[in-house]
Amino acid sequence: MTTATPPGRPPADLRNPAQLLAALPYLIGFRPAKSVVLVGHRAPTGHEPGLVLRGDLPRREDRVRQARALAPRFAAGRHLGVTLVIVGGRRRSGSPPPHRGFVDELADALGEFGLPVLHALWTTGITAGAPWACYVEVSCCGSLPDPRATVLAAAATECGTVAFDSREELEALLAPRSPEALARRTDRLARLPSPPWPDATCVSDAASVIRDAFDRRRRGEGPPTDEEAVMLASALKLPEIRDVCLAMAVPPETAAAREAEHLWLTLVREIPPPERAEAAALLGFTAYMRGDGAFAGMALENALEAAPGHLLATLLKRVLDRGTPPEVLRGLAAAAGQFSGFGLDPVDFDAGQAV
Known about the structure:
This protein is α+β, with helices and mostly antiparallel strands and 355 residues long. It folds into 2 domains: 2-164, no CATH class; 171-349, no CATH class. 45% of the residues lie in helices and 12% in strands. It has 14 helices and 7 strands. A hairpin with a 6-residue loop joins strand 6 (131-134) and strand 7. It is elongated.
């Protein structure tokens, strides 16, 4: 399993190996274990991270395939080189760090694209006091600082970035709140006309449904009722509504973007498939815009599980896997809608208007 994180997370200094290792949970969204992590050094200085890829440590027979799958993703970006990190494995006294053969395979695969390995590091785990070492310089070694006490951790906390203890913990955020509620809503959606509003007022009625959901969230009213969830699922199917929702993802640091992401996450847990795919795709796009590739990838996988072949989710997953920087897609959000959100009168969403 591979996780791609584009540029956009809080900055990390790639010149300090111990600090870089401690920063990994904040760069990929969770604490990696038994992993290989590749950190691109972004041009022009090479001191800031570009694309960050995490993959499971492969079996010996899969090393070449894994290396040749990871390396090409750095070719499209503007990278001066790559730092390799192996997390996991035991080091015997007097021996080099484990998984040296895999590091060599990765170096060869990256070299085919003109990308040098600027540093190759190993650690037992991303915890305070864990030993770390370099594959080349014997004297390059030490113990990790507390990941929660680094400058990057402080910067991440200030901007609302959370580092989870495991990938499974992060994935659990997307789990349904109530399978029983989803079953009821599946039945109601199957019996409901699509869309459930008159043609003349369809878009404005749907916009009112979304706006009411934001209002309920601000009042702290909790999960939607069956009726509310069904209406929200119907509203997100409309291209005009989807476009305004996409536009809410930028600028990513605003309160409106954070509020929208929280609502999409709620709806991923409250809407059954296949309708859930709309909310999951919006969640993936919004997370991607703020640079959280790990969570964006999980949300997009969730969308494709709910509705295989979902167009928006498929396109975004392809872009994410290629390591495209979020700023390249900001134009998509800007072009998707002319409005900043749903703080508009329903008249602004008449059915004949392209939103």
